[in-house]
Design a protein that fits this description.
80% of the residues lie in helices and 0% in strands. It has helices at 8-39, 42-53, 55-69, 72-96, 102-130, 136-164, 168-183, 193-197, 203-215, 218-233, 241-248, 253-277, 281-303, 308-336, 342-350, 355-369, 372-396.
Length: 405
């Protein structure tokens, strides 16, 4: 296997993105614990965290439409500027008020998520312009690895900072670490081809074309349906780990940081082996189903509250397999989509993550009326059921030729 040769700008882009990701993951780790300590109410925690995710659904579509219509570079710069502004507003609120009204915090998180939601569609559309398109699978793998390397150290670093400093200091550090990620965007090569060649259409008609493309590709349609269901019933586990640590393990922020870091180590490994696990589309989709099935089984095991060493092992495996599951769907859509539809089609698959907010509301409610462990059990059973049904339906259908682009 030859080594991937990244161009100089792409290396710089990855480094700066990792720095920004370190701050963002520190803030996310701190936010979960901050909500637990400040409000100590599972329903409020579920609402606030859901407000942070909900806009990703509709803004992903807006971002994809704009990516195929306007200058991607300028759109990225504008969106990241707005993200930094709302991040600053959130940090100031937490710094000046010991217990802000939850709906103020939820409102700011919602506003930031509006910009956060549009950014991934544009970023995915711009990726082939800053990396070799023929190595897109490896490029996505390296990108995911860089983000997850930051995710390893972020929870531990955040936990140490919270122990020795006031909690709002972490949010200020997050804001400062976003600056390199913002500056590197100005060095993205100018992209004019897409804007010149694109056909200007209405929002509805352009997305009708993208949805028709997905619908007529059997492999993409399967991937999309299973992805949105798994985002609903399996992926909320990540946002609920802090609740599991505090209410089930009766532990503190330090252990939460260690467990989050172990999960991130698994995710890093996923980025490194992505192109080796999924060697081709026909075999890859079967492996993808098995990975989703295994994630559901791991959640069921986690619900019985095993010994702490097994909890570490389970979270490592969940980080590994959940990242493989998520990344494969993105890679598959990148490889199968033509350039003039990439922004809109990628926004469709990226929008599946918005279902996490609905699942989070559902499973925090289950945890509130029953127990946290029963909520994890329900997630595991639902995940296994989704995959088994998808496998049964897939076996009954006659094999068809995949759509060639």
């Amino acid at each position: 296997m030859g080594k991937v040769k990244l161009n100089k700008f792409y290396r710089s882009f990855l480094y700066c993105t990792c720095i920004g990701a370190l701050g963002e993951y520190m803030a996310l780790t701190t936010l979960s614990w901050y909500l637990l300590e400040t409000y100590n109410d599972l329903s409020i925690i579920g609402k606030v965290l859901s407000f942070r995710i909900i806009p990703r659904f509709f803004m992903g579509f807006v971002g994809g439409y704009l990516a195929d219509l306007h200058n991607k570079r300028k759109m990225m710069i504008l969106l990241y500027f707005l993200i930094m502004c709302t991040s600053l507003l959130q940090t100031i609120l937490i710094s000046v008020d010991d217990q802000p009204a939850w709906y103020y915090l939820a409102g700011i998180l919602f506003l930031r998520s509006v910009f956060d939601g549009a950014e991934p569609s544009i970023r995915n559309a711009i990726l082939p312009h800053i990396a070799d398109k023929s190595m897109i699978t490896k490029a996505v793998g390296y990108y995911a690895t860089g983000l997850n390397l930051a995710a390893i150290g972020a929870p531990i670093l955040a936990a140490l900072l919270i122990q020795y400093f006031q909690i709002h200091i972490v949010f200020w550090i997050d804001w400062l670490l976003q600056i390199p990620s913002f500056i590197i965007l100005f060095k993205i090569p100018k992209i004019t081809e897409a804007a010149k060649q694109g056909i200007k259409r209405s929002f509805i008609s352009s997305y009708k074309e993208a949805l028709c493309f997905i619908y007529h590709s059997e492999i993409l349609m399967k991937c999309f349906i299973v992805s949105i269901l798994m985002m609903l019933v399996m992926f909320p586990f990540d946002a609920m780990i802090s609740i599991y640590v505090k209410n089930v393990l009766l532990s503190d922020i330090k252990n939460f940081g260690y467990l989050s870091a172990v999960e991130a180590v698994g995710a890093v490994l996923a980025g490194s082996i992505l192109h080796r696990v999924f060697k081709n589309n026909r075999q890859g989709i079967r492996m993808w189903y098995l990975i989703g099935l295994f994630c559901g089984v791991l959640l069921i095991i986690l619900s019985i509250r095993p010994e702490i060493i097994f909890i570490y092992a389970i979270l490592f495996l969940l980080g590994l397999f959940s990242q493989l599951f998520r990344s494969y769907s993105r890679v598959l859509f990148q490889e199968k989509t033509p350039d003039h539809l990439r922004g809109k089609v990628m926004s469709v698959i990226i929008s599946d993550s918005s279902l996490i907010s609905v699942g989070l509301l559902l499973f925090t409610y289950v945890a509130e009326i029953t127990t946290v462990t029963k909520s994890f059990l329900a997630m595991g059973i639902c995940s296994v059921t989704v995959i088994l049904v998808a496998l049964i339906i897939s076996r009954r259908r006659k094999p068809q030729k995949y759509l060639r682009v």
